[in-house]
Design brief:
One of its GO terms (biological process) is iron-sulfur cluster assembly. It comes from Halomonas alimentaria. This is Folate-binding protein. InterPro entries: YgfZ/GCV_T_CS, YgfZ/GcvT. This protein is of the alpha+beta class. It has two domains: about 1-260, 2-Layer Sandwich (Gyrase A, domain 2), CATH 3.30.1360.120; about 260-325, Beta Barrel (Elongation Factor Tu (Ef-tu), domain 3), CATH 2.40.30. Helices cover about 20% and strands about 30% of the residues. The protein has nine helices and 19 strands. A six-stranded mixed β-sheet has the order 10-11-12-9-3-13, with helices on both faces. A hairpin with a 5-residue loop joins strand 15 and strand 16 (about 285-295). The longest helix is centred in the first third of the chain and has 12 residues, at about 105-115. The chain is globular.
C-alpha cells in the first residue's frame, strides 16, 4: 500500500509513519499548504445487496444518513460496548460502503464482521490498492479542485465519484483527505507537490490531536467505551437508531452518566514522545489515565491525547517523567447528534 509513495521519495519510519526530507514539517504546516501520504489509514469495503442492512446492525451510524454526501464517524463494538474500531463511513455507490480506519485494525475488524456477514449478501474487502492523500492549509480546497477536479465538501461530508472520493476533516487548519487508486495517486502526487510542500504523515496526526480526534489502534482494541474518546461529542454515535452490537451498553453509559474516563488534550514539557498506553501519573505516582496518541508540534514539544479519570481535581500530572499540561478541546463534551450534522 505504501510502495507508490516510497517510489516518489518518501522514507518509511514505521508501519504507519512515513517522512520526507522536509525541514520542520509541523512548522511549515502553520503557514504553507502541505501534502502528505496518510499511511496510518486503511480501507475496508462492504459491498452487496444487504450492505446497508448489515452495517445498520453493526455500526453506531444511522445508515440511511450515509447517502453519498454525509460521511459520518462511526464505531464498531463488542456486546459489552467496548470499541473494536472507530471509522469514517461513506457510500461509494448503491450497495457499496467504505470504511476509513487505522490500518492496524482493518484485518481484525474484517474478521469480526465476517462472523455476521455469512447471514447477509455482502462481501468484505481490504482495499490495499487504494491510496490516501491528505492536504492541509488555506490553499487545500483550491488545490484539490484544480488537481483532482473535485469541489471540496463540508466537514464530515464527501464529494467525488466511484473512483476518487474527497473528505473534509476538522482541525486548526483546513484539511482534506483524498481516496484514489494507487495508479492515479502516482500521477497526481507530483502535481500536488508542485504547489504544496510534501510532509510526513506525522503532521496529519498532530492535527488530529489538536482536533481532539483519536483513531483507535490495536493497543486499545476492546478496552474503551466510545464515550471515552468523546465519540458522541464528535457526532459518531446515533442515539436515535435501532439496535446494533453493543448499543445497549453505549446508550446506558450515556443516559445514566456512567462515563468515568474521557479523552483530553495535552502538551508535555519536553520533546520525548511517550509510548501509546503510557500511564498518566498524579503526584502520588498513581495511574489516572493513559496515552492514546502523541506527536511533536511545531515547537518540538510533545502533544498528546490521553484518556483521564473524570474526577474534577486530580492535581498535577506527568507522563514518562514529563509534566503534562491539559489544553482545551476544540469542542464541548456533549452529545452531538449525527442527524444534525447530516442536515448542515
Amino acid at each position: 500500500m505504501q510502495d507508490w509513495i516510497t517510489e516518489l521519495g518518501a522514507r518509511t519510519l514505521a508501519d504507519d509513519h512515513i517522512t520526507f526530507d522536509t525541514q520542520d514539517a509541523a512548522r511549515q504546516a502553520l503557514d504553507a499548504t502541505v501534502v502528505t501520504p496518510l499511511l496510518q489509514f486503511g480501507v475496508l469495503d462492504v459491498v452487496g445487496a444487504d450492505a446497508e442492512k448489515f452495517l445498520q446492525g453493526q455500526a453506531s451510524a444511522q445508515l440511511n444518513l450515509v447517502d453519498g454526501d454525509f460521511a459520518p464517524l462511526t464505531v464498531f463494538c463488542t456486546p459489552k460496548g467496548r470499541m473494536l474500531a472507530n471509522a469514517q463511513l461513506l457510500r461509494v455507490a448503491e450497495g457499496h460502503y467504505r470504511l476509513i480506519l487505522h490500518r492496524d485494525l482493518v484485518d481484525s475488524l474484517a474478521d469480526h464482521l465476517k462472523k455476521f456477514a455469512v447471514f447477509y449478501k455482502v462481501q468484505l474487502t481490504a482495499r490495499d490498492d487504494l491510496a490516501l492523500i491528505g492536504l492541509i492549509g488555506q490553499e487545500a480546497s483550491a488545490l484539490a479542485e484544480v488537481r483532482l477536479d473535485i469541489a471540496p465538501p463540508a466537514i464530515w461530508h464527501q464529494a467525488g465519484d466511484a473512483e476518487t472520493q474527497l473528505l473534509a476533516h476538522p482541525g486548526p487548519r483546513p484539511r482534506l483527505l483524498a481516496i484514489l487508486p494507487t495508479e492515479r495517486a502516482t500521477e497526481v502526487w507530483p502535481t500536488l507537490a508542485e504547489q504544496a510542500t510534501p510532509a510526513g504523515n506525522a503532521v496529519w496526526c498532530l492535527h488530529d490531536i489538536q482536533a481532539g480526534l483519536a483513531w483507535l489502534t490495536s493497543h486499545h482494541r476492546d478496552a474503551l467505551l466510545p464515550q471515552m474518546i468523546n465519540w458522541e461529542a464528535l457526532g459518531g454515535i446515533s442515539f436515535k437508531k435501532g439496535c446494533y452490537t453493543g448499543q445497549e451498553v453505549v446508550a446506558r453509559a450515556h443516559f445514566r452518566g456512567q462515563v468515568k474516563r474521557r479523552l483530553m488534550r495535552g502538551q508535555l514539557d519536553g520533546s520525548v514522545l511517550p509510548e501509546i498506553g503510557s500511564p498518566v501519573l498524579d503526584t502520588n505516582d498513581k495511574a489516572v489515565g493513559e496515552v492514546i496518541t502523541t506527536e511533536l508540534d511545531a515547537y518540538d514539544q510533545a502533544e498528546v491525547l490521553v484518556v483521564l479519570s473524570t474526577k474534577e481535581d486530580i492535581g498535577p500530572l506527568s507522563v514518562a517523567g514529563q509534566k503534562l499540561k491539559l489544553l482545551q478541546l476544540p469542542y464541548p463534551i456533549e452529545r452531538l447528534d449525527p442527524e444534525s450534522l447530516a442536515a448542515s
